[in-house]
Every structure is written in C-alpha cells, then in structure tokens.
Hints:
This protein is an alpha/beta fold. The chain is built from 14 helices and 13 strands.
Amino acid sequence: MRMLVVCSDFPYPADHGGRVDTWGRIKVLAELGWKLHLLVCGKQQPSREEMDAVYEYVEVITLCDRRSKLADLIHAAPMQVRSRSSLQNVELAGDYDYVLLEGDYVYPVLQNPKIKHDTVILRVHNDEAVYFKALARSTKNVAHKMYYHMESSKFAALQKKMLEKVDKYLFISSKEFETFRKQNPTAKSLFLPPPVTKGTFEASDFQSKHVVFIGSLFMPNNREAIQWYLAHIHPLMLKEPGYKFIVAGNSRKQSLSWMDAYDLTNVIVHDTPKTLDDIYKSGYLFVNPMQNGAGVKLKTIEAIQNGLPVISTSIGYEGTGLVDNQHIMVADRPEQFHGKIKQLFDNPQTAKALLEASQSFLRTHYNHKEVLREYMQSLNASYPVKQVL
C-alpha cells in the first residue's frame, strides 16, 4: 500500500503543534506498513540531518518551492494556498492507494494530473476560516488584521470547493468534527486525535513554583495569551515565594519587545530552545491562557504528556475531549485563573491527581494508531493494513 503525504511545512523536527501532529502520523503510518512518499511545499529548506531523520520512515521525499508575490493578495485563493501553486505541476509517480493532505494549504495538489480525487483524505488541523478570523482578533497590527480577515473569507470559499473534490476527512478537533458531521453527514469523516508520541509519560515532582508556557512566539494568538497572563495573573503571582513564569518557543528571530510593557520580574524567556525537556521538568504546572484560536491547541496535550497539569481558558482546551475539574482546570476570568493556580500550588496532591487523570485519558482516548488503522481499513476492506514494526 502506497500513500502520498502532502505537507505545507517540513515535518521534522517536530518543534511546533502542526509538525508534532504530522510527524507523529508519518511514524504511525510507517509502523502500519505503508510505503510513504512525502511531498513538501514550504519556505524552509531542511538540513541533510533532518532529511535523513525523515528517510527513516519514508521512501521518497520531494520538495517544491513555495513562492509568494504581492499580486497573490488579490487572487480568489488564500495567499497561503496560492503560494503553493507549484504543487499542481510537481512530477509524481502516481499509482498511490491514498493521498493524505496535511491541511487546506496544499489544495493546489488536487490540480495535479496524477492525483485521483477519490483517493484523497484531508487532515483538518484547523477550521482555517475560523482560525484566521481569530488571528485577526489577536493582532493589533492593522495591516495584519486586514490580511487575516481576507484570508478568513477566502478559506471559507475554499472549504466549499474542497467539499466538491474530497469526501474523506480526519479532524484533530472533536468539536470541529461534530460540527462538520452534522452539516455533511455523507462525508467519510472521523475524529482522529493527535498522536501521543512519548512511549512513557513524564511526571512533575511538584517541588518548584514554576508556571510554564510553551508556544510559537511569532504567532499573534500566542503573544496575546502571554500578554493576558502578564497583565492579569503575573502581578498577583509575584507574591508567591519561589514563583517564576517560564516562557519558551520559537520566535523565528522576531523581536520580543512586545513583552517589554509588562513587569518581567521573575519571568524567564527561552527563545528558540534546542530542547524543551528541561523546561518541562522544571515546571509545576502549565498554563494555556489563549483568548483566540481554532482547532486543538497541541501545547495542552504536549504539556500533559510531559508531566505538567494544565490550567487553561476555554479556548485553550476546546476540541480535546478533556473534562474541566477532572482532567484539566478551566478559567476565563483573571481572578478564577489565579485562584486555580493557587489551588494547585497549595495542594500538590490535587495537582498530581489532575495530571494522572489527564494522562490516563490520553492513554485511553488518544490511540492514534488504532483509530487510523481502523479508518483506513473501513475505506477499503480488501487492503488490510498490517503492522510491521
């Protein structure tokens, strides 16, 4: 069984949410016996070492150029899609049993003559129309706000076109899956949770008083989340002996001056760290104070896997299936959010029980391999997928 996996970004190293999901699935597919051809149309050229790491799981890697020009702003297609138009002309072997599109951005590959539409499966990382509208709310830059609103409208139109060509969908968000299924009952859609990639889950020793946030520091919705925490929660937490706020993520070499307006006492920033292991290990709990977003915030899932109980806003945990006060603590008002942190700081056993419950939930419900195996078999029972690793 051969599958073409089409990505808008090279999936390795898995250093942000989209890559974590895609890279984990590539490894699962390889373990299930699929022969994989990876097609990537992204900005960054992978290193030889990164290519070699991916070749451990795929047979063929094809890279094509992503090209943007100002005129793309007035095109009917979203710029994120238009810039990947070269996908329609890439030389492909064809004869794929299935083609997995990792998100809407790679839509142009559907115009490639070697792609048969009845073999196409779309992995829905976000409802992009909703996601870009959320980005517009998060940014204060007027030009960026206009761009995000334009992309949102264009993605709404693109999703209708996608439905005419694709009838197989795998949703990362249970919430978005339920909405889609009600509106499109004939499509072969399924909630496929993100892969739990760690063989064993970690556990905090709950000795520090470190509050951790990890996320891409160039994204406006993550910046907005950090700013909300610094404005409303951090000043209250400074009264707590030993407290520190640990922020880590890839800035893509963009300035972090947007944090300068806040009191950064006891704030430690790790800009583009090579590894997150020690940062997770140093933490007591993880916060996800996002105010705007769409899809599943993989930072929440990653934190639980890495041994930290999570306090989140409603936006930060939607679509995960986690239950408030059972697996996670949820608060949207600053006084509630601060109260939840204090509750876990003052009761390490409560923090430990919350972590254990959330990790148990992921072990039970986030079996990516089994859900994906059953889905692929349901599409074509005459081609059973056999696990080879």
